[in-house]
Every structure is written in C-alpha cells, then in structure tokens.
Amino acid sequence: MKRADPWSALAGLTAARIALGRVGASLPTEAVLRFDVAHALARDAVHTQLDLAALAAGWQGMQGEAAVIVHSRAGDRHTYLQRPDLGRQLDEVSAERLAALATAETDLAIVIADGLSATGVAAHALDLLGELLPHLGGLRRSPLVLAGQGRVALGDEIGARLKARLVLMLLGERPGLSSPDSLGAYLTFAPRPGRLDAERNCVSNIRPAGLPLPLVAARLAWLIDAALSRQLTGVGLKDESETLLSNGEGAAALPG
Rounded to 5 degrees, what are φ and ψ at 169? Predict the structure, then answer.
C-alpha cells in the first residue's frame, strides 16, 4: 500500500516549491521545466520595456484625461538596473514639464512607473485605479504621471513639482519565481526629494494570486484619507482598514 505524502496537503496551499518529488538523486523533469519557465518569466518582467504610450491611451479611454509621460535620469534599462540613484531623479526635460503643469496645490498626485516588473504594471495598474478612483470623492488630483525607468523615490520629486500634498506611486515589484506580475503601491505625505522609506506606507503583492484589486483599493482609500487628515504617512500611520473591512464597516467608514 502506497503511503500518503505528508507534504501534498501543504503543496496545495502555496506556490512555494515543496513536495516536488525526486527521480533518484534529482528532481523530476516536470519540476525542472516549471522552474525554468518561472525563471524566464521573472527575467522578462525585469527587462521588458513598459509601453508608456499604451498606458496613456488606456487612461485616456478610461477617464477621458491625458496622462503626462516623464522619464528618470536612467536613459535605458541597463543603466536603470546598474544605477538605482538615477532612477530616483527626473531628467531635466521631465522636471521642466511638470513644473509648468503645477499651477495650484492638489491633494493627490498619482504616478505609475515601471519599477522592476513592467509585466505587473501593464497587467494591473490601470485596473487598480479603476477600482480606486470611485473611493476618492472630491479630492483634487494632479494629472496622472507615467514614468519610465522609475524607482519608488522618483514619486517624491514628481509630487513636489506638482505641488501635491500626497503622492501615490504604483510600480512593478521585484519579481519572485512565483510572482512575476506583482504591483506595489507607496504613499508619501508632503513628498520631496530625500524622503525616507520609513516615511511611506506600502501595500505590496497586488495581483490576482496575492491581494485582489478591490481589497487594495479599499485599503488605499483608507490610507489616503487618513494621511491627508492626519498629515503624515509612514511608521506614524498604522493601517486600520483591515479591521474596519473585516468587521463589515468598510463601506461606511471608507471615503467616497
């Protein structure tokens, strides 16, 4: 009688590579091929160029608003990966373009950047905004900014140049071998160059197999409202949205 594999029940609950089996001292061919595919998808997510024009067209069709395309000082993908510092700074043309748009203070600037997974951004960023925007009510928003070769801190300079009280940066997260399409969201109050990571709030693992978009939208809406009312983000702002949502109070408590 064949003995049941004690790992099989756990293997059904996680994408982690457990209970792969073996053939002699080696892994089964199927497990090796699956690993090779996952590795290829992760590499593609990092190196694929994000189509900013397609994102801008998608936003125009969804909201009837024009997006602003900017670039960091990392001129290409190779430079972006080798020089993280350049991905945190706008190039000169982009800085001037944003400065010309900033005619008055706004409550919120939203930025979409490629980050380390163009796959995740192309798949989920606009859909997430479609879920989020109905929650934002009458907030004054800056034009949507689409940033090429951008890292998290690029949002600080963009938000400052747009005179925004708060910046929301959406960008592709570093892909794992089971999550090449993950999106991250970072909120920073009073954005300006030099802000620390401890001064941000982050929601990560945004994807169908991770945090679903409606839940993320509700969580971000709560954080945006709390950040603007309390005038801070980061370690001083604890996310209480999960408690409200789990108690069935989310619809009444969340803005919009």
Answer: -105, 120
